[in-house]
Queue: 2 jobs
Job 1
Amino acid sequence: MNSQNVDSGSAEGMDERPTTATDAGIPASEPVVDLANVTFGYTATPVVEDVSLTVEAGEYVAVVGPNGSGKSTLMQLMLGLLEPDVGAARLFGDRADRFDDGERIGYVAQQASAATGMPITVREVVKMGRFPHVGFDRLPEDNRELLDGLRAEPLDTARDVANAVSGRLSSEDWAVVDDALATVGMSGFADRRITELSGGQRQRAFIARALAGEADLLVLDEPTVGVDAESVDAFYDLLAALNAEGITVLLIEHDLGAVVEHADRVVCLNREVYFDGPTDEFVDSDALARAFGAGARSLAGVDG
Ligand SMILES: Nc1ncnc2c1ncn2[C@@H]1O[C@H](COP(=O)(O)OP(=O)(O)OP(=O)(O)O)[C@@H](O)[C@H]1O
């Protein structure tokens, strides 16, 4: 285990995170994302055409492409938020549009949209990550087991039932919340309002929410737009540490310099896939110029 706390180097909170696809309950052969010949258009004209790609558990994949090239649309197809006109999209082995295990996915939006109108504290944001895990689902399905629990450990079992009925977080849930805050280096900001944070801190709080939800896929849509350069570096260090723990990272990124530095694999899109492969091969290929047009000369300086 080598997770990092961005601020202090602590590895708290990551000990129980699955490290392999098999540990995570996913058959090793089951891709996290699987698109087969997917075509989609909002109108009769496709904005994503004949895209086939798979993302395996533990990968760090960046999707790049010019403005309007279909990146967000592709992400929505991957997550089952849009249905392909042609082809098939699968998520953790299920049809993406029928996938109902949402807590497995942590979504971090552009910070501009994440920032709006949330006068709640960081801890409250992170706590939301636990909501799918609380409630009746946590109680034993078998009544006999519940009765046995009441006999053997009446106080603990009664408290579990009360928590389930009220949807309250248990002390274990709060420990997960605190661990997630520590992992992203935000323990000291737990009681700060989310509106009173810098862009980079806010994005780390949203990552903590995903960790508290025990997500094993992180989907990030241009997460560092508007975040200052130093915080951007810390943010990517955090993503790398989480990926090293086995979390699959799927990143839409505008900043090609960051992609080249951090992602293992690049999918370069402009309606169709222009390139899909290891980042160093992308750097050496002509995919960038073809997808972005003749003006795209420098990886670090391209305005996607
Ligand atoms: N809800 C929608 N209804 C109709 N057209 C849409 C919708 N969303 C996106 N489009 C169009 O689909 C195309 C692809 O858009 P998309 O947002 O997927 O691209 P993108 O690569 O994410 O762009 P950007 O980098 O600017 O965020 C664009 O031409 C866009 O105008």
Job 2
Amino acid sequence: MARVTAEPRPWLAPSASAPFSATVRLPGSKSMTARALVLAALADGPSVIERPLRARDTQLMTAGLRALGVTVDTADDERWLVEPGPLRGPARVDVGLAGTIMRFLPPVAALAEGTVEFDGDPHARNRPLRPIIEALRSLGASIDSSPTGGLPLTVRGAGLIEGGEAVIDASASSQFVSGLLLSAPRFTKGLVLRHEGPPVPSAPHLRMTTHMLRAAGAVVDESVPDVWAVEPGPMHGRTWVIEPDLSGAAPFFAAAMVTGGAVTLSGWPAESWQPVGRLTELLTAIGAEVTQSGDGLTVRGTGQLHGITADLSEVSELTPVLAALAALADGPSELRGVEHIRGHETDRIAALVAELSKAGAEVTEFRDGFRVEPRPLHETTFETYADHRMAHAAAVIGLAVPGVSLTDVACTSKTLPEFPELWAGLVAGVES
Ligand SMILES: O=C(O)C1=C[C@@H](OP(=O)(O)O)[C@@H](O)[C@H](O)C1
Ligand SMILES: C=C(OP(=O)(O)O)C(=O)O
């Protein structure tokens, strides 16, 4: 499958000479945009997605849905229109490096009539996929996968999935559960999915899935721990208003903390489906003041960065940026509970241990995280491993440490193509 990935773009992270006060306007949540696209594609009428994220992950998701017969009009940046159509192959889906596509679209493909091939970036083939594929097979889907159980794979859609009961070990990714649940109302018998194994990470993402399913009209029962039941039935087209991406905002908040300034994320809703409470607790423990007002969500640096001990299993996406703050803190930190991030865009534990150590920190690796002993950091070339959040972490360190260069900043296009320019503007005092 021909695949286009951005050329590596080396980048010198700007260092900050003074605290800054800025308001940032960021695009929509990746996770909400991905779910809205899938639910809209499976609905019984058209949908509108307001303030979506336009980035590599969501554009590849859009392309994948179009290949399956869905009409997605993305001409207007603020308002995407989705018109469901009969799902059909033959089709090819490039998942890029997106967990959301490789886990959310195979169930949709199994509902299509025809053959749908999936592949992605080289590292996408190493990301865990087997449990969701095996669960889909047990629910009646016909799928050929690689010997490792992952990409590349071919879904031989029969136009329906029988559904019923399935057991899955979703300890490697909550997206296995989300992927099955999002399509489940369209399974002939619905779905009763039971997780068996070590805890499922990223609970807030699971709640986002069930909230959005209900908002689309699905009947979902999650009253029994580790069991999700979805009744068969129609989902309705609707208007989805996407919240600004909280994980994408994390490096900007960290910038306020590192420089002793303030960053406001504008457009933040009074009630959110993202884990703002957990982020607030963590940033406050490190030394920030977090407030919410009509202007948005504001994080103020207090001039203090404390080390923390935290289990990040619920918010593992935040690990790289929190690790950067830990390396700049006034005491040691232990960030644990995230073994599964070894299966993210790269092995994030190994990558953070390697790169923070190179910059001068003393880092001890554990199976499920690491301990960071801050030391004076020095200039370094930070390898980004095609991982947007490794680039964010390097940029945060670069604010305080002159001479931090990144092997590639183009990888930030996965979730925020404007990152280098927004970041440089922020440091230069230009509001976005
Ligand atoms: O469902 C989602 O949108 C996501 C779930 C989480 O995945 P894991 O449970 O694999 O960590 C998160 O880390 C990822 O960035 C987005
Ligand atoms: C883990 C992440 O992405 P994905 O959706 O590709 O799993 C992430 O964005 O931090």
